[in-house]
């Protein structure tokens, strides 16, 4: 049966027996009809059903007149033609599925046309690919049955969620017991969590610590750093494990003992499934593209939201507008991947100008819909940041869960070792263990193999230096 015949058979079945509409409405939307007249007729029938009006050829003709699509001497004949060519109303679901399949085919062809057109116009390839993926995903799930859950389905979803709570898969623990307790167990999957503070409070350090603690439980993490280089991030991680200051790892010479500690800590860090980005700028779409490359993704960390670029759509929105757009995009990202997204946010100078500089939710006002979209907002505050007399190697860090959409709020205190980039709520036990070659995972390399790879990728670096020396 051709698609136009199937469309006519669907409408004819409804005119013959209006009880068919219930089955059809579960499968088809007006835009699924290819012929404009059939689409208009279906819209009229749906409107009549919502108004609880009787549906038959006479009443539908009246509906066509009210909608302005009645044609004298043609509309009446077309309705009776629909009824005449319909083999049987009993097969209405079969006809509807043919119409739906053809609508999906047209949608897929539309995506292909979009790709061809955009690439011919020299659009950015990765932007076209990401938009195409989104359109195909929407096309795949964009059925009437996806729009609503029945009461039974909605309750089943809750039961399944409670089962995931039991096995720990409903949320991702930060690895800090005090914070996880206040969060209600951890960061919920599909949740958006804001980690906000003034510069220098320890946002990045805490985010790195959380990422590594999640990874230590065997879960894959994407850490998107837009403010620091990957080398700086890894220096902080190794400093935590080796107790060698991060600045010495990056800039100073190490003793033989420290070189050994560095090597052991590096073995541990590279065994953790934390994936760090190469690019130094990104849009939300590009973060999504990175996330798709991490199989078994459990957590996304973005450092920080102020560095994310708005999507280019031929307009120049103000800061609040594009921050609102970015915030909504991050929330969609969390729901699409069903993982928590931890987003770092840098507060303005408002807290510093108050008598009590502790950050509050109103400090997020100029960040668009960030507070509104967030499932949780975590503020960091250090008294010694404002009081020179209290500065020392270990700082008391106040971690305040100021918003928690799914539970209570509250705060806890962490010990922040700024030199070692370490944050703890209890005695910290380093996880440094020398990784022998035979104990490495299938994707890991020994340091000798890493060095050989570096020499292969950079064949002229050392040779040029030696050549100059010889001369």
Structure commentary:
The protein folds into three domains: 3-141, DNAb Helicase, Chain A (Orthogonal Bundle); 172-435, Rossmann fold (3-Layer(aba) Sandwich); 444-471, no CATH class. Helix content is 50%, strand content 14%. The chain has 19 helices and 13 strands. The protein has helices at residues 3-16, 20-27, 36-50, 57-67, 75-85, 92-120, 125-141, 144-147, 151-167, 177-183, 203-216, 230-242, 246-251, 256-270, 284-292, 319-337, 370-373, 447-457, 461-470; strands at residues 171-172, 187-188, 192-197, 220-225, 274-276, 282-283, 297-303, 308-309, 341-346, 376-382, 394-404, 410-417, 422-424. The strands form three sheets. A nine-stranded mixed β-sheet has the order 5-4-7-9-3-10-11-12-13, with helices on both faces. Strands 1-2 form a two-stranded antiparallel ribbon. Strand 12 and strand 13 (422-424) form a beta hairpin.
């Amino acid at each position: 049966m051709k698609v136009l015949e199937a469309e006519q058979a669907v409408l004819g079945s409804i005119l013959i027996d209006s009880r068919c509409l219930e089955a059809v409405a579960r499968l088809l939307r007006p835009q699924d009809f290819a012929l404009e007249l059939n689409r208009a007729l279906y819209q009229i029938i749906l409107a009549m059903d919502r108004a609880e009006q009787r549906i038959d050829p006479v009443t539908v003709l009246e509906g066509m007149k009210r909608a302005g699509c009645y044609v004298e001497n043609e509309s009446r004949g077309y309705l009776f033609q629909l009824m005449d060519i319909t083999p049987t109303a009993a097969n209405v679901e079969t006809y509807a599925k043919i119409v739906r399949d053809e609508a999906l085919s047209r949608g897929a062809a539309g995506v292909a046309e979009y790709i061809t057109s955009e690439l011919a116009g020299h659009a950015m390839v990765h932007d076209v690919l990401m938009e195409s993926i989104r359109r195909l995903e929407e096309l795949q799930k964009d059925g009437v049955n996806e729009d609503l859950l029945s009461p039974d389905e909605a309750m089943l979803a809750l039961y399944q969620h409670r089962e995931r709570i039991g096995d720990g898969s409903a949320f991702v623990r930060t690895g800090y017991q005090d914070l996880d307790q206040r969060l209600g167990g951890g960061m919920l999957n599909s949740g958006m969590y804001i980690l906000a503070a003034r510069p220098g409070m320890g946002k990045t350090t805490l985010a790195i610590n959380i990422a590594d603690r999640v990874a230590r439980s065997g879960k894959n993490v994407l850490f998107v750093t837009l403010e620091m280089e990957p080398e700086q991030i890894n220096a902080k991680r190794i400093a935590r494990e080796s107790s060698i200051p991060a600045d010495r790892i990056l800039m100073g010479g190490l003793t033989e003992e420290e070189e050994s500690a560095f090597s052991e800590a590096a073995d541990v860090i590279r065994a953790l499934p934390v994936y760090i980005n190469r690019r130094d700028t990104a849009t939300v779409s590009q973060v999504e593209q990175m996330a798709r490359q991490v199989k078994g993704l459990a957590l996304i960390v973005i450092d920080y939201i102020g560095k994310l670029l708005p999507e280019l759509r031929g307009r120049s929105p103000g800061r609040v507008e594009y921050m609102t757009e970015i915030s909504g995009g991050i929330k969609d990202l969390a729901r699409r991947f069903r993982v928590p997204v931890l987003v770092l946010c840098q507060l303005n100078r408002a807290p510093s100008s108050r008598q009590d500089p502790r950050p509050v939710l109103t400090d997020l006002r100029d960040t668009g819909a960030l507070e509104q979209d967030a499932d949780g907002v975590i503020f960091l505050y250090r008294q010694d940041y404002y009081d020179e007399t209290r500065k020392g190697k270990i700082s008391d860090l106040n971690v305040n869960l100021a918003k928690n959409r799914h539970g209570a709020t509250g705060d806890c205190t962490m010990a922040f070792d700024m030199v070692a980039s370490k944050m703890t709520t209890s005695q910290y036990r380093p996880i440094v263990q020398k990784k022998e070659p035979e104990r490495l995972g299938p994707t890991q390399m020994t340091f000798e193999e890493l060095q050989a790879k570096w020499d292969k990728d950079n064949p002229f670096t050392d040779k040029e230096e030696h050549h100059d020396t010889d001369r």
